[in-house]
């Protein structure tokens, strides 16, 4: 079955994570993705290990797990874009492509004649996506941007981590490069919007994505708490700024999450933990009250949660239709029957390891499903296919 985007050809000049994440999604959806790599080592993430993929005998190959996470369903070619020959080859490829993705510093692509203006002159229908730290305009446009740096500058770290006064207090980065990942997702949205508009106008356009913009946008309710309510958010650990109780608790044998979303759930929660009087306490009657008095409520709930093991609590709360769950390790996530049932662990055989396991794509389409057509390519594996 043909993929939803099997009519598209993508020239991927990007590296590391945000750009490759976007092009992998397009590839999963059926697009032909040509990954252009530096002949001297390829994408930087090829060397970001250990761990490296083992071969059939269990020996490390040169293929890093990091590279594997963002590069399946692509074809790798080596091009030295510093040379006139390499630049001419890429311009020729671009004449037959629908999309170009790049993450050069601002002005970097123009040095090679591979910027939007140059490619649109030979292919007016090209949709050209630039991914940078700070965008194509503004006082910081020329600065390089990295996920960790932008998590800090974009406010994400200011709302992540234990609250002041608690053990381990201080700003924390998210445990994955979330700014890169979210920028890749927004890039796909922008690219598809430009492609949809091209059906009417026949013209492509420049899609300008900045890690800082995306980080600010994905602060979501926290940003709007400030813009609308004048509240400058602070770190709350695993608690929620707008809903109480919506946090982690320590049970007798470990941690669990309780996510009470409304007043009815709070009453049922209080019944389950054997403290129905808390639901009648005027300090805690409504969510507005509970947010205002969270410092009084949380210790009372925590004391009750120490009376049972976490699995007991989860079973009791689920039976009462109160959202609760474990805090899984990554290993436990992929052992979870629901994850298995949803196809979130997939086998994508590689020439060096027929049992290569990768994370599946979460998009489920009924007629044109995601397909795992090829593993992450070896460097220059498809050099002969694109001359």
From TrEMBL:
The UniProt record lists the keyword Disulfide bond: no
Annotated stretches, region: Disordered: 367-387
Domain of life: Bacteria
Alphabetized Pfam families for the sequence: CoA_transf_3 (PF02515)
Protein keywords: Transferase
MF GO annotations: CoA-transferase activity
Record bears the keyword Signal: no
Protein name per the record: CoA transferase
Native organism: Seongchinamella unica
């Amino acid at each position: 079955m043909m993929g939803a985007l099997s009519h598209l050809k993508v020239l991927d000049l990007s590296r590391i994570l945000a750009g490759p994440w976007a092009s992998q999604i397009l590839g999963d959806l059926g697009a032909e993705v040509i990954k252009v790599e530096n002949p001297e080592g390829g994408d930087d993430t090829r060397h970001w290990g250990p761990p490296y993929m083992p071969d059939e005998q269990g020996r490390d190959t040169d293929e890093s797990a990091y590279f594997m996470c963002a590069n399946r369903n692509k074809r790798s070619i080596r091009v030295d874009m510093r040379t006139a020959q390499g630049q001419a080859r890429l311009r020729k490829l671009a004449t037959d492509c629908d999309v170009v993705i790049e993450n050069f510093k601002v002005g970097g692509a123009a040095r090679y004649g591979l910027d939007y203006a140059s490619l649109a002159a030979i292919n007016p229908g090209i949709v050209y996506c630039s991914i940078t730290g700070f965008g194509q305009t503004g006082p910081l446009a020329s600065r390089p941007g990295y996920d960790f740096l932008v998590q800090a500058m974009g406010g994400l770290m200011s709302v992540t981590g234990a609250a002041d006064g608690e053990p381990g207090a201080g700003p924390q980065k998210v445990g994955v490069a979330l700014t890169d990942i979210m920028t890749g997702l927004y890039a796909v949205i922008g690219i598809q919007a430009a492609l949809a508009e091209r059906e009417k106008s026949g013209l492509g356009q420049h899609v300008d994505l900045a890690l800082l913009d995306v980080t600010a946008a994905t602060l979501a309710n926290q940003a709007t708490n400030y813009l609308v309510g004048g509240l400058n958010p602070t770190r709350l650990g695993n608690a929620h700024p707008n809903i109480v109780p919506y946090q982690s608790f320590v049970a007798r044998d470990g941690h669990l999450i309780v996510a009470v979303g409304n007043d009815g759930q709070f009453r049922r929660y209080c019944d389950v933990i054997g403290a129905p009087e808390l639901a009648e306490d005027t300090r805690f009657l409504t969510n507005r009250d509970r947010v205002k008095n969270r410092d009084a409520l949380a210790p009372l709930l925590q004391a009750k949660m120490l009376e049972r093991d976490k699995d007991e609590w989860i079973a009791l709360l689920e039976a009462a239709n109160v959202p609760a769950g474990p805090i899984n390790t990554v290993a436990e996530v992929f052992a979870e029957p629901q994850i298995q049932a949803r196809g979130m662990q997939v086998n994508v055989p590689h020439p060096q390891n027929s049992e290569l396991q990768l994370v599946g794509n979460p998009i489920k389409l009924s007629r044109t499903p995601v397909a795992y057509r090829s593993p992450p390519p070896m460097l220059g594996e498809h050099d002969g296919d694109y001359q």
